[in-house]
């Protein structure tokens, strides 16, 4: 089966319906594939590479051996799993796996095809409010494609939000900014050396992009994932809060409690999860950090918060 990337939007790895956490109202979440960062806690490891990949589900394997016979590289082991050092992603095993123990993650859409998927949810937007949220991966690294789909949604009256790690070339994504109504942007750590250790890149470009986007006038929510032992020190939160305080369009700083929901995906991709055994931070810890953030932000008319059971908590 021949697979060719199409023009317009690049590879998308998921379209999620009826989200309530990534913008106002009911949202359609569109996940771009590909990210320049490699965060240790990434819950969507299938989002990191820009190309299609194979994900495995051993419990579905019936042991028929068809994938082993089809693989030209001899990359399929006796138990049906893939030796990733040999695999070149030719996808021939996918074509013969009727049990769907091996699936492709990622699909190329044209702008028109993607808009049709988003348009299906317009009745929900009309009734409950909401719109589309472009996430990833990192949508800002798909500058032209993000601009094309955001413009189409904007012109059709669909509210557009972008979730971003902020790591991208401003000159290549600024064309999309006129069609974006709001953004959620991450700052993982205020110390650039620690940021590089945790994500593979420093934070200077990210902080600079956030400043430029705020100066452009787009409403921002800044987020930090709270990962025990990595990002959960009070000085990290207060340092980021001081940065948020100076952003003209940022009114809220949201802390996100770490979870391990994506751990099984690493195994499905043949990768090791480096944070195995890491626990979700306690409610007490989250409230302490929110309170620390608000000690900085309250005097600027801004707030730090976190969400538990769909309820936003602000601890002064």
Automatic annotation (TrEMBL):
Which Pfam family, any one, appears in the UniProt record?
A: Fer4
Q: Which UniProt keywords apply?
A: 4Fe-4S, Iron, Iron-sulfur, Metal-binding, Oxidoreductase, S-adenosyl-L-methionine
Q: Which cofactor does it need?
A: [4Fe-4S] cluster
Question: What are the residue boundaries of the 4Fe-4S ferredoxin-type domain, all occurrences included?
Answer: 52-81, 82-107
Q: Which reaction does it catalyse?
A: glycyl-[protein] + reduced [flavodoxin] + S-adenosyl-L-methionine = glycin-2-yl radical-[protein] + semiquinone [flavodoxin] + 5'-deoxyadenosine + L-methionine + H(+)
- MF term (GO), any: 4 iron, 4 sulfur cluster binding
Keyword 4Fe-4S appears in the UniProt entry: yes
What positions does the domain Radical SAM core occupy? 21-295
Task: Show the PANTHER family listed in the entry.
Answer: PYRUVATE FORMATE-LYASE 2-ACTIVATING ENZYME, PYRUVATE FORMATE-LYASE-ACTIVATING ENZYME
Database matches in NCBIfam families = PFLE_PFLC
The record's similarity note reads: Belongs to the organic radical-activating enzymes family.
Q: What's the protein called, per UniProt? A: Glycyl-radical enzyme activating protein
């Amino acid at each position: 089966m021949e697979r060719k990337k199409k023009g317009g939007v690049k590879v998308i790895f998921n379209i999620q319906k009826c989200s309530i956490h990534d913008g106002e109202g009911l949202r359609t979440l569109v996940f771009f594939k590909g990210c320049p960062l490699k965060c240790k806690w990434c819950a969507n490891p299938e989002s990191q590479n820009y190309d299609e990949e194979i994900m495995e589900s051993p419990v579905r394997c019936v042991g028929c051996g068809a994938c082993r016979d089809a693989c030209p590289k001899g990359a399929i082991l006796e138990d049906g799993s893939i030796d990733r050092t040999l695999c070149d992603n030719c996808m021939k095993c996918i074509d013969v796996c009727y049990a769907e123990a091996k699936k492709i993650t990622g699909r190329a859409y044209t702008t028109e095809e993607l808009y049709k998927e988003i348009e299906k949810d317009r009745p929900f937007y009309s009734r409950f409010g909401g719109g589309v949220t472009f996430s990833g991966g990192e949508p800002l690294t798909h500058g032209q494609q993000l601009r094309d789909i955001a413009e189409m949604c904007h012109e059709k009256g669909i509210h557009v939000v972008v979730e971003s790690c902020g790591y991208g070339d401003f000159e290549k994504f600024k064309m999309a900014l006129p069609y974006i109504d709001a953004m959620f942007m991450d700052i993982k750590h205020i110390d650039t050396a620690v940021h590089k250790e945790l994500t593979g890149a420093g934070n200077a470009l990210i902080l600079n992009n956030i400043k430029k986007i705020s100066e452009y006038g787009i409403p921002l929510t800044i987020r930090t994932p709270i990962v025990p032992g990595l990002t959960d020190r009070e000085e990290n939160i207060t340092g980021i809060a001081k940065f948020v305080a100076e952003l003209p369009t940022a009114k809220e700083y949201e802390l996100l409690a770490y979870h391990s929901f994506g751990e099984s995906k690493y195994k499905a991709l043949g990768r090791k999860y480096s944070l195995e055994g890491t626990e979700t931070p306690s409610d007490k810890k989250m409230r302490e950090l929110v309170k620390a953030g608000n000690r900085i932000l309250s005097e600027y008319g801004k707030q730090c918060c976190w969400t538990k059971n769909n309820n936003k908590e602000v601890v002064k």
